[in-house]
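Task: sequence design from structure.
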């Protein structure tokens, strides 16, 4: 057997040990400490927003974003079916219901079908989008930028304005991706809607082990997210809490790790971009990213007619690959929820494998994967 080649693992070759050691030596290891503030500022500067709010995970960030956008029990939220389940579960945390949308060829939410749904299945009443089938208020949508791609935000924002929808960007996979042309030129994934959320899970392009970040150009939204993330403290001395809050703050240890990772983000992206094109140069037909964007090349998607056979073959050769997520509208907790004309997502679910894509993947690793795929028959 050869060397094991993982799908996506952390790259911890910068100042991680030095910063975490300093946090430990100063004994600021919990949710207070300078690294939390430094990481928030560093990320906000990187994506060109006024502020950012660190939190416990991307999932926690999405929960806070939904609450801040006013989503309540009995409301509805438009979501994609092709995504990781953490993008949808927070809707249920609140007691709201998701409505599932199909993807386009970028694997992100299809704006054409989104518009059709709003036009055909809903009415607008008193500046609210009302679902004709349920009579409920559709208050927001969660737009997921899948695998480092960016959804068609020009169309999505236009639709959202027309139909009075809040836009929450799940940019947990797309830190560093931005538009290079068009009306949104220069804007990063996560910064174009009402609120954006990033994740620093262990397999993301930068990691804090676990953790997330919330961004917005609306500082009142950020104030609200920070308030809710710290147990809704109204008086920290006398422990006055006027609302139910959450223990969603990031620790100083995590932030120390994150700051060191952020310093290397552009290097990681260059490496992932180089490896992506090495695969393609050797005839491995990976899915392309949207034209007019600089992707972070987080995950590489390979179309195959024999998904499970190829997956098992590569795993036997110590090469870790994985299928795309099982579509959420087909999962047991969500089978009774409304969905709209889903067909393309079904096709991609059946045919996509993600190939090794770590930022510390060597040229030899890439060559090994290519040889193994080409030898499959």
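Answer:
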């Amino acid at each position: 057997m050869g060397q094991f080649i993982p799908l996506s693992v952390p790259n911890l070759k910068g100042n991680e040990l030095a910063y975490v050691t300093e946090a430990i030596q100063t004994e600021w290891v919990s949710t207070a400490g300078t690294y939390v503030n430094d990481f928030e500022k560093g990320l906000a500067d990187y994506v060109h927003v006024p502020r950012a709010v660190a939190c416990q995970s991307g999932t926690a960030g999405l929960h806070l974003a939904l609450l801040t956008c006013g989503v309540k029990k009995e409301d509805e939220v438009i979501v994609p079916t092709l995504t990781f389940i953490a993008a949808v579960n927070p809707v249920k945390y609140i007691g709201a219901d998701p409505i599932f949308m199909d993807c386009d060829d970028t694997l992100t939410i299809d704006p054409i079908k989104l518009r059709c749904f709003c036009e055909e299945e809903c009415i607008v009443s008193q500046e609210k989008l009302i679902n004709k089938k349920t009579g409920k208020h559709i208050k927001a949508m969660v737009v997921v930028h899948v695998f480092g791609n960016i959804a068609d935000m020009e169309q999505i924002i236009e639709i959202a304005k027309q139909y009075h929808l809040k836009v929450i960007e799940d940019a947990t996979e797309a830190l560093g991706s931005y538009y290079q042309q068009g009306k949104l030129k220069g804007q990063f994934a996560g910064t174009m809607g009402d609120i954006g959320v990033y994740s620093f899970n262990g397999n993301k392009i930068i990691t804090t082990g676990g953790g997330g970040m919330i961004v917005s150009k609306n500082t009142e939204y950020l104030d609200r997210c920070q308030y809710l993330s710290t147990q809704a403290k109204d008086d920290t001395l006398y422990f006055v809490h006027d609302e139910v809050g959450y223990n969603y703050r990031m620790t100083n240890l995590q932030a120390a790790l994150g700051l060191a990772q952020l310093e290397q983000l552009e290097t990681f992206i260059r490496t992932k971009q180089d490896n992506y094109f090495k695969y393609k140069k050797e005839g491995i037909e990976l899915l392309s990213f949207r034209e007019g964007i600089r992707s972070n090349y987080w995950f590489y998607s390979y179309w195959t007619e024999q998904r499970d056979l190829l997956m098992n073959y590569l795993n036997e050769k110590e090469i870790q690959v994985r299928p795309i997520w099982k579509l959420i509208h087909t999962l047991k907790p969500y089978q009774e929820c409304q969905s709209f004309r889903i067909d393309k997502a079904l096709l991609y679910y059946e045919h996509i494998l993600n190939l090794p894509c770590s930022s510390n993947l060597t040229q030899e690793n890439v060559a090994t994967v290519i040889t193994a795929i080409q030898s499959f028959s």
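The radius of gyration is 21 Å.
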